[in-house]
Amino acid sequence: MKKTIFILFIALSTSVFSQKVIDEGVVKIKMTMSSDDPKVNDQLSMLVGDVSMMIHFKGNNSRSEINNPLQGNNTTIVNSDAKRMLILQDDKMLGKTYKEDTIDLENKNTEGVTVTENGETKTILGYVCKGYDIVGNFSGAATNMTIYTTDKIKAINPNNPLLRNNTSGFPMLVFIKSTEGGVAVTIAMEVVEVKDQAVDNSLFSLDIPKGYTKSGGR
Predict the structure, then answer these.
(1) Which of the two residues, 60 and 49, has the higher pLDDT score?
(2) What is the architecture of the domain spanning 21-208?
(3) How many other C-beta atoms lie within 10 A of the C-beta of residue 61?
C-alpha cells in the first residue's frame, strides 16, 4: 500500500512540475521530413538528414538555432525589445551570411489563411496541448498544418506571426503537409525536451558576428 501511494505521489509531482508556467528556459525540437513517394524520401534523407532545433527564450525575446549536419546551421534571433530580427546562416556551401529585418508582433495579416480549433488535445511531455488546423498558401505551395499548443510555456513563436495571433500558446507538436509541383511532403516538429532555466541576455544580441557578410551582397 505504501509503495502504491509513493508511486502515485511521484507521478502526481512530476505532472504538476511539468504543468508549471515557464517564461524563461530552453526548448529542444526534433524535425523530420517525409513523403509518400519513396524516391522523394530518399532525396530528403540525402538533402536534409536529422535536424534539431534549440530555442532559448526569455520574456518576448528568443533565439532559435537549427542544426543540420548536411547543410549547416541557421540562427534566428528575435529581439522584441528592439523590434528587430537577425538571421545568421552558416551554410556549408554558401558560407556565413546574415539578414536583418524589423518585426511586428501585432501583424494580423491572415488573408487567404484559415485557423480552426479542432477540438483535439494531446499530452506532450506532461503538457496538455490544444489542437488547431491551419489551411493556406505559403510561398506558392498549398499547405495544411495541424499544431498542438500549450499555454504553460511563455515563449514567442518567432518564425510565424500568423500563429502568434490566431492560436493560444507555444506549439509542442506541428505537422505541415504541403504540395508543390505534384509532390507531397510532410514536415513534423516535436518538442522533445523543456528546461526551466536562466537564459543570458547576451543570446539575444543583434550584433553581427565576425566573419558574416550581408545576404545578397558583400
Answers:
(1) 60
(2) Clam (2.50)
(3) 21
